[in-house]
Design the sequence.
């Protein structure tokens, strides 16, 4: 550039020159800013910055020169480039000494012909740009003040002296804060400011100096406009909508409505073409409002016109109109854009927190008006809420998002109709798919889990109380089962301190009593499926299972179809009576592979561990549509209770007492451990295991399933039933929570034969794999009554040779193998013959009188 080669024009940013053509200039060379300085004796310096400026956009450009004096008199000199308030570059730059004072300042255009400047005349070029306020300082002001100056923008005209700013004239808190911040900044930069020229002060061709010295009249240094320059004020449309009409930007809402009812003036659907046209305008108009709401004047208009309620009415109309008009490809895209526009509108309000909370409550958290939309649109809304949890946690907390989402879940995503349930069948004309409903519940619980993850320790107890109140009061089994699994995940999360916090909150808020209520409800329901009277299933939810039944009966292939059969059985349960359901629930689910004890568990059986009552958390779009992997079995609530109980016991929050005086209750009383270290037995808590046992006895066909078994046996050996790598046949598993194992053993006679066969087989393998397990099995009070009860009870049930795909001969073989192995172990111990005698006498007593499972004399 100094050589002067080439003919490229370089727009000038500014020039500060002395009378002998010495000074400093800044100009653009292409997209980059160049600073040149020329001093006496022909000394020159040039600096090229690397920040690429783009044409046709506004920039706040700041150049700051600092000179730090060293110990030996030589200092470090550097030049800093600020763009939009951010420091982008800092480069070493030595200014040549200028012999004479600067006498001329030219900004945004060329110097007059009498002062050529440092550039060659043929390459001189004006900036050809719109100019805002110009600040010239005597000394560096630093990055913080530079950033605040850029953030304030160019519209603010600084004022100095007493009474400047007038913050007390503000009409709201936002304008008051802006005035106070602007006054503080003016006070800080006033002593360093040398010259200030603001376009709003232009009078003809002259612009007065607005710096403290200029406004006080100490020095008069007015600026003059060179050449033919048109001066015009610019007002952004978004900032002037408040003056358009009453309501400001709300005046655009009629463009989204195709017609109104003449008597009530409520929005109504008009012609199809007109309705489609107005619906396509809705998303852009909401985005315009989201931009305009950032201006204080527009914000005041929205508050004055009760904007949240009005926007909610219009949005409700738009969503209903979209459902009636159908959801083609084009409309689907428009609807997703509408969701994005609503999210942008709620997030763009940064100045009025109360208004922002109202927008969240009326537009995003009210699921009732969104329930008429299709599955994809509701999923888009819930995923958007999940994305905003951490960035808008305070706003969502103040909007009571947790309770609003729970209430909306119960009213909109129901499986059993309630008086206040929302049914969109008359509006949409299509029945809801249960698989899609459950998938939406999963998405909603993700939002709730994130809300609980962001909650403080002080508010955690209130949120847990809300969850407990929901599971006790809600009659929807699909929602309660999923919420129990959510509570389980909160208790077993990796963050130990938060896991303990949620566990303590659950116990102190009556969580154990809530589990008792749920178990009583399950026991009263009996073997009848809770969803038998539901009219929620659509035709696509009824799937034929004839082919899978045949496939399940073939050898090792039965485990591969176990999960899908349980899902299909749930879907067909609405059309079958209790006996047919009982025959299909466990039919061929646990087809025995012979009397071989050491069988390996299959991969698909391991996948059962990942399910909570049929809830699969790796749901793809296809299997959601097919409703195979996201349907509820009838055991989800009991599985959730067992997992929560096992987690609380494993973490030490609940403990079992050593014995119980009441023979009708389980041997171990369940107690709670308080912070003081004292162990206090509570009657209701001690009944939890007993209630679980009675629930199994009341509904063995419905509750004693593969998922319940895996949850119960996992809790007994103190491993996580959600671990997909869990294999019961790995060595090393020990019976740690005997009371949970006793619940399984006491209820085993009532279970289906397939359940009995699997339990006996697994318990025998665990007993053989660890010597302590064998000792535990022979020392419990129920030995050998429980296994003899299984044998005798099967003979009393009837003469059917095959029940649930398992013959009575297979049960006999398993029981005999179990007794032989355990008694051989006893015979190796001292006085082992006593166990053999006790087994014989127990069998005689059970066959004549009856054990704890019958309570009266047996039929001979």
Sequence:
């Amino acid at each position: 550039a100094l050589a002067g080669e080439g003919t490229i024009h370089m727009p000038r940013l500014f020039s500060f020159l002395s009378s002998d053509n010495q000074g400093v200039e800044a100009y653009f060379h292409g997209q980059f800013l160049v600073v040149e300085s020329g001093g006496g004796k022909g000394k020159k310096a040039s600096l090229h910055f690397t920040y690429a400026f783009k044409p046709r956009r506004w920039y706040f450009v700041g150049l700051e020169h600092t000179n730090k004096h060293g110990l030996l008199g030589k200092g470090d000199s550097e030049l800093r480039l600020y763009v939009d308030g951010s420091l982008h570059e800092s480069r070493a730059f030595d200014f040549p000494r200028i012999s004479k004072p600067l006498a001329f300042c030219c900004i945004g255009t060329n110097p007059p012909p009498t002062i050529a400047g440092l550039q060659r005349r043929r390459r001189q070029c004006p900036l050809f740009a719109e100019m805002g306020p110009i600040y010239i300082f005597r000394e560096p002001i630093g990055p913080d003040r530079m950033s605040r100056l850029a953030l304030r923008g160019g519209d603010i005209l600084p004022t100095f002296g007493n009474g400047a700013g007038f913050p007390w004239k503000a009409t709201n808190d936002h304008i008051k804060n802006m005035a106070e911040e602007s006054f503080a900044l003016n006070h800080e930069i006033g002593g360093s400011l040398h010259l200030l020229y603001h376009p709003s002060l232009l009078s003809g061709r002259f612009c007065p100096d607005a710096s403290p010295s200029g406004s006080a009249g100490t020095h008069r240094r007015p600026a003059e406009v060179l050449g033919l320059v048109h001066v015009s004020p610019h007002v952004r449309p978004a900032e002037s909508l408040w003056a358009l009409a009453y309501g400001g930007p709300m005046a655009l809402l009629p463009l989204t409505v195709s017609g109104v009812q003449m008597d009530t003036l409520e929005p109504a659907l008009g012609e199809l073409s007109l309705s489609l046209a107005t619906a396509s305008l809705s998303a852009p108009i909401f985005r315009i409002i989201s931009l305009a709401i950032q201006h204080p004047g527009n914000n005041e208009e929205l508050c004055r016109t009760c904007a949240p309620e009005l926007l909610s009415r219009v949005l409700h109309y738009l969503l209903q109109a979209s459902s009636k008009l159908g959801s083609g490809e084009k409309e689907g895209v428009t609807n997703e854009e509408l969701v994005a526009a609503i999210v942008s509108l709620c997030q763009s309000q940064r100045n009025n927190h109360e208004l922002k909370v109202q927008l969240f409550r009326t537009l995003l958290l009210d699921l009732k008006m969104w329930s008429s939309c299709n599955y994809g649109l509701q999923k888009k809304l819930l995923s958007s809420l999940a994305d905003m949890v951490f960035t808008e946690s305070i706003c969502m907390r103040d909007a009571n998002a947790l309770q609003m989402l729970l209430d909306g879940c119960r009213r909109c995503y129901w499986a059993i109709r309630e008086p206040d349930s929302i049914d969109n069948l008359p509006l949409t004309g299509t029945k809801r798919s249960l698989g899609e409903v459950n998938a939406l519940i999963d998405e909603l619980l993700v939002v709730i889990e994130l809300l609980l993850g962001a909650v403080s320790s002080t508010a955690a107890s209130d949120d847990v109380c809300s969850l407990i109140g929901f599971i006790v009061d809600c009659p929807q089994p699909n929602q309660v089962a999923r919420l129990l699994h959510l509570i389980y995940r909160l208790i077993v999360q990796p963050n130990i301190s938060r896991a303990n916090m949620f566990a303590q909150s659950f116990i102190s808020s009556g969580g154990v009593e809530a589990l008792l209520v749920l178990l009583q409800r399950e026991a009263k329901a009996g073997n009848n499926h809770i969803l038998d009277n539901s009219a929620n299933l659509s035709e696509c939810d009824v799937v034929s299972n004839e082919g899978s039944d045949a496939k399940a009966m073939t050898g090792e292939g039965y485990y591969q179809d176990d999960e899908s059969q349980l899902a299909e059985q749930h879907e067909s349960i609405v059309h079958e009576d209790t006996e047919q359901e009982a025959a299909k629930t466990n039919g061929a689910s646990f087809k025995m592979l012979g009397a071989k004890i050491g069988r390996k568990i299959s991969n698909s059986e391991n996948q059962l561990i990942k399910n909570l009552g049929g809830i699969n958390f790796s749901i793809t779009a296809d299997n959601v549509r097919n409703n195979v992997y996201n349907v509820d079995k009838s055991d989800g609530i009991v599985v959730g209770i067992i997992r929560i109980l096992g987690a609380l016991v494993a973490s030490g929050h609940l403990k079992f007492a050593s014995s119980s005086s009441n023979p009708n209750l389980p041997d171990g009383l369940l107690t709670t451990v308080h912070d003081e270290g004292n162990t206090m037995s509570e009657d209701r808590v001690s009944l939890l295991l007993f209630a679980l046992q009675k629930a199994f006895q009341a509904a063995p066909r419905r509750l004693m399933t593969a998922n319940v078994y895996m949850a119960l046996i996992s809790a007994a050996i103190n491993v996580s039933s959600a671990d997909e790598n869990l294999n019961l046949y790995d060595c090393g598993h020990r019976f740690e929570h005997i009371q949970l194992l006793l619940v399984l053993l006491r209820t085993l006679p009532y279970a289906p034969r397939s359940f009995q066969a699997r339990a006996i087989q697994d318990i025998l393998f665990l007993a053989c794999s660890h010597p302590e397990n064998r000792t535990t099995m022979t020392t419990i009070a129920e030995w050998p009554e429980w296994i003899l009860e299984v044998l005798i009870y099967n003979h009393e049930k009837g003469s059917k040779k095959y029940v649930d795909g398992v013959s009575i001969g297979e049960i006999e073989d398993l029981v005999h193998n179990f007794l032989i192995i355990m008694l051989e172990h006893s015979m190796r111990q001292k006085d082992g013959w006593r166990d053999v005698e006790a087994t014989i006498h127990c069998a005689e007593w059970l066959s004549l009188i009856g054990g704890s499972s019958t309570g009266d004399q047996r039929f001979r």
